[in-house]
Design brief:
By secondary structure, the protein is α+β, with helices and mostly antiparallel strands. It folds into two domains: 1-62, 2-Layer Sandwich (NE0471 N-terminal domain-like), CATH 3.30.2020; 70-338, 4-Layer Sandwich (Double-stranded beta-helix), CATH 3.60.130.10. It contains seven helices and 17 strands. It has helices at 51-56, 96-108, 123-131, 196-206, 208-216, 265-279, 325-335; strands at residues 24-30, 36-41, 45-49, 87-89, 111-115, 142-145, 161-164, 176-184, 191-195, 218-225, 228-235, 237-239, 245-248, 285-288, 295-299, 303-307, 316-323. The strands form five sheets. A six-stranded mixed β-sheet has the order 4-5-15-8-17-6. It has a four-stranded antiparallel β-sheet with strand order 7-16-9-14. A hairpin with a 3-residue loop joins strand 2 and strand 3 (45-49). The protein is globular, with a radius of gyration of 24 Å. The structure holds 3-carboxy-N,N,N-trimethylpropan-1-aminium, N-oxalylglycine (OGA) and zinc ion. Zinc ion binds next to loops.
């Protein structure tokens, strides 16, 4: 109705307190278009709803829109990709059908690979600018992942890194991560991905109690260096109001002193140990090599990443950057025509 919403941008023009407290329906009927018309009193206000709108907004279905929830995802494990990993070619990144298939992979599977990305420094930021926005952090707009002397982060060594999500010590976390491979001639240094939602659902299947402990225990993560002190207090597994998994945060290197009530400490460690054992199961890991020109983009609230240790001989150079799901999903929604 024109008096309720701005005709151009659709934004609501009134506040809930402008509605009468004793609102009631005088009449409800279907008009000649099949739309449902409701006459509200005491304002004598006529609202018109399409049947589709009413159905998709029905309270009782408890079927919220929620593009972050496990319900909207295809959970996967090691043997799910026998036909190959989801990928697009850099050459076609400007095409809307390529963007659509890449972003659908991101929403359903949690990642995709771009092949043939020019091995040019800073290219990772160009890739982001085509589909979303860069999330700058204390690590810079982009960060170099290669071996450093006196690194402030173990990522900048040749050590293997266990499965983790990045920056759980930051609130809000960057929800998307990109890693672009510029050089890869070391032995080792393979990439590993694990579906964190799958791992959390296995934990739930094996122990409801441990799952409940991790979804309800808030723990501290922390990162410090000479210029930085980042802290968060969050659960390792986050649920929505429908008890569906919506986010995992896990980085063993950055868990601060555990601060949960004394009587919950033992059950917390039992659940934490179980969770980390599930995450490390081989049957959940996909392992592959990022070669020069490959870039992987993943949902950092769902997909955990890891790498195997690598030799000091040869070179390994990745450039990484963060972005956010909101911008990418906004593009996906518009490509799917949902903003109409
Ligand atoms: N780097 C690569 O979240 C982390 O601390 C993992 C992040 C340093 C930006 C490494
Ligand atoms: C990172 C990271 C993995 C790799 O930079 O956050 O986990 O393959 N790197 O080096
Ligand atoms: Zn990482």
């Amino acid at each position: 109705m024109p008096e309720s919403r701005n005709e151009n941008n659709g934004q609501r023009l009134f506040s809930v307190k402008d509605l009468p407290v004793d609102v009631s329906i005088e009449e409800a009927y279907m008009d000649e278009n099949g739309d449902v018309c409701i006459l509200f009193q005491p304002e004598n206000h006529l609202s018109v709803f399409t049947q589709d709108w009413l159905l998709s907004n029905c309270y009782d279905l408890n079927d919220h829109f929620e593009d972050r929830s496990e319900k909207q995802k295809k959970l996967w494990q090691k043997n799910s990709f026998e036909a190959g990993l989801p990928f697009i070619n850099y050459d076609s990144i400007d095409k809307s059908d390529t963007q659509l298939s890449a972003l659908r992979s991101l929403r359903e599977i949690g990642f995709f690979v771009i092949k043939g990305v020019p091995s040019v420094e800073g290219q990772v930021l160009k890739v982001i600018s085509k589909i979303g926005y860069t999330r700058e952090t204390n690590y810079g707009a982009l960060f170099e992942v290669r071996t450093e002397v006196n690194p402030n982060n173990l990522a900048y060594t040749n050590l293997g890194l266990g499965s983790h999500t990045d920056n759980p010590y930051r609130d809000p976390v960057p929800t998307v991560q990109l890693l672009h491979c510029l050089e890869s001639s070391t032995e080792g240094g393979d990439s590993i991905l694990v579906d964190g939602f799958k791992a959390a659902s296995i934990l739930r299947d094996e122990s409801k109690e441990n799952f409940l402990t991790l979804t309800s225990s808030w723990i501290n993560y922390r990162f410090t260096d000479s210029k930085t002190d980042l802290r968060s207090r969050v659960p390792m597994i986050e649920l929505n109001d429908n008890n569906e998994i919506i986010k995992v945060r896990y980085n063993n290197r950055s868990i601060d002193t555990i601060k949960v009530p004394k009587d919950k400490m033992r059950s917390f460690y039992k659940a934490y140990r179980h969770w980390s054992e599930v995450i490390e199961r081989d049957e959940l890991k996909i392992q592959f090599r990022l070669s020069e020109g490959d870039l992987m983009l993943f949902d950092n609230t769902r997909v955990m990443h890891a790498r195997t240790k690598f030799s000091k001989t040869g070179k390994r150079h990745l450039q990484g950057a963060y972005s956010d799901l909101d911008g990418l999903y906004s593009l996906l929604n518009t490509l799917e025509g949902k903003n109409k």
